[in-house]
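All the exercises in this workshop are built on plain-text protein records. A record pairs a protein's sequence with a compact description of its fold. The structure tokens are whole numbers drawn from a learned vocabulary of backbone shapes. Once this layout is familiar, the rest of the handout is easier to follow. An example says more than a description, so a record of this kind follows.
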Amino acid sequence: MKKSDIIISLAGIILGAILLILSRSVFADEKAISGFCLGFGAAIFVLGFGNLIGKLVTAKVETPEIARIKNIEENDERNIRVKEKAGWATARIMNIVLCVLALASALTNQELYITLILAVLVVVYGVLILGFNIYYEKRL
């Protein structure tokens, strides 16, 4: 287990705890900022804690033979293609979901910022697809 993994996990735990404390003490009067700090603090804290536990358990269980097999599985061309196809299918489905949500929020007269956020996410998705296509065409 690398030291950098432990440091990143501990930094996440500490940052999450700080945001949780700030949400209940400093920003207790301001509902929006308090909710923001509470949500992100809880998420960062749990992700850091889960990452730390996962790294510690993996380090205890992993033998050199398991590490070798894991390395082969990660670099196997078939597994790489499966991950690429799964990622692409997931991205396409999420694009459809975002489009439906944007349309539904517009048709149900939701707040304008909600509809705009969903529409911007669809545009960002398109720009990322275009950017990564150009990047990988030049790289490969």
